[in-house]
């Protein structure tokens, strides 16, 4: 009996020292996630239905989010079209054919003049003179044919270049590029002052207007325009698809420049996160129209103003937080 009492007493003492001491630790472990959840990001919606992400100061600091006021910018009114970089190979071949025809015409014309002089002196037969006349006429028609095909295929703006060989050389070396932009059917535009082109790389080079395209694109069925990028710093290649923003007459548009890294894409549109007026802990996802590209980013004319504080670093992280919050709902 004495042995049983001692064992029972020892077990009670061990429980007090170890078991009772372990309970607060386990309770703290269970309470920790609840604390973390309370301090974690919150995803809500404002009265207008906009997504609002609220972060704690600790989370905000660890994410490295940066906000800034966008710079203002004025741009010309623009019309959006679609097109591609043209292959200069067929144009170079046609110009080479034209040059060969012109050289042949010069030679046959000189031969005809020589035979006429000799025929007048009685030193050339009428048959030789007739053959020379036929050769000169054939070469003249060949030159005319090459000129007509050049104008019909590439337009007068290309065919009437003062230094056509130099123009072709710059195209074949890709120092400059020709671009064709077509408007959708029903959208009309007389003559643009120029254009801004958006390449797949995200660069937006400026292009000068050369002239109207001589043919209609079978898919777009709208008016086409030929443009030239004088300095191909973007290294555009033949066949590359581009979006063209043709400059049209009118009052300049007032907007702000949104850096490319500030824009996130979801729901089929472009968005930015704008800091709320609560000390910079809340961010509202705001839709922006990506209609006016520049080298510095996008010029936005609606939705964001110069007074707004836009997230320029960490926007994609905020979108990830938002999507995770939506998945838990």
From the structure above, extract its key features:
single chain; alpha+beta; 3 domains; 6-stranded antiparallel beta barrel; 5-stranded antiparallel beta sheet; 7 helices; 40% helix; 27% strand
Largest sheet, strands/sense/barrel = 6 strands, antiparallel, barrel
Radius of gyration: 37 Å
Under CATH at level 1, the class of the largest domain stands as: Mainly Beta
CATH topology of the largest domain: conserved putative lor/sdh protein from methanococcus maripaludis s2 fold
Write down the secondary-structure element order: HEEHEEEHHHHEEEEEEEEEEEEH
The whole-number mean of residue pLDDT values reads 80
Just name the CATH architecture of the largest domain. Beta Barrel
What class, by secondary structure content?
alpha+beta
Strand content: 25-35%
Task: State the helix count.
Answer: 7
Q: What gap, in angstroms, lies between the N and C termini? A: 62 Å
Morphology call = rod-shaped
Write out the strand line-up for the largest beta sheet, numbering strands in chain order: 5-6-9-8-7-10
Count of distinct strands: 17
Given as residue ranges, the uncertain stretches (5+ residues, pLDDT < 50) are 1-38
In total, the number of domains comes to 3
Percentage of residues in helical conformation: 40-55%
């Amino acid at each position: 009996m004495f042995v049983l009492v001692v064992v029972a007493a020892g077990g009670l003492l061990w429980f007090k020292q170890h078991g009772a001491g372990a309970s607060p630790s386990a309770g703290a472990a269970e309470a920790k996630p609840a604390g973390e959840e309370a301090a974690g990001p919150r995803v809500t919606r404002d009265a207008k239905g906009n997504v609002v992400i609220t972060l704690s100061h600790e989370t905000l600091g660890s994410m490295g989010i940066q906000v800034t006021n966008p710079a203002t910018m004025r741009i010309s009114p623009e019309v959006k079209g679609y097109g591609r970089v043209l292959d200069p190979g067929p144009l170079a071949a046609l110009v080479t054919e034209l040059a060969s025809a012109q050289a042949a015409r010069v030679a046959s014309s000189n031969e005809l003049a020589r035979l006429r002089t000799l025929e007048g002196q009685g030193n050339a037969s009428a048959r030789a003179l007739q053959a020379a006349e036929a050769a000169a006429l054939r070469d003249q028609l060949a030159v005319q044919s090459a000129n007509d095909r050049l104008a019909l295929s590439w337009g007068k703006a290309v065919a009437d270049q003062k230094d056509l060989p130099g123009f072709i050389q710059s195209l074949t070396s890709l120092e400059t590029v020709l671009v064709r932009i077509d408007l959708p059917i029903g959208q009309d535009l007389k003559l643009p002052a120029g254009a801004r082109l958006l390449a797949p790389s995200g660069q937006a080079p400026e292009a000068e207007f050369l002239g109207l395209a001589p043919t209609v694109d079978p898919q777009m069925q709208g008016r086409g325009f030929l443009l030239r990028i004088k300095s191909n710093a973007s290294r555009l290649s033949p066949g590359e698809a581009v979006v063209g923003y043709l400059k049209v007459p009118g009052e300049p548009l007032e907007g702000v420049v949104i850096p490319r890294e500030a824009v996130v894409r979801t729901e089929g549109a472009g968005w930015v996160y704008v800091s709320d007026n609560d000390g910079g802990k809340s961010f509202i996802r705001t839709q922006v129209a990506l209609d006016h590209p520049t080298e510095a980013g996008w010029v936005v004319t609606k939705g964001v103003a110069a007074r707004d504080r836009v997230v320029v670093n960490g926007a994609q992280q905020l979108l990830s937080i938002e999507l995770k919050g939506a998945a838990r709902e």
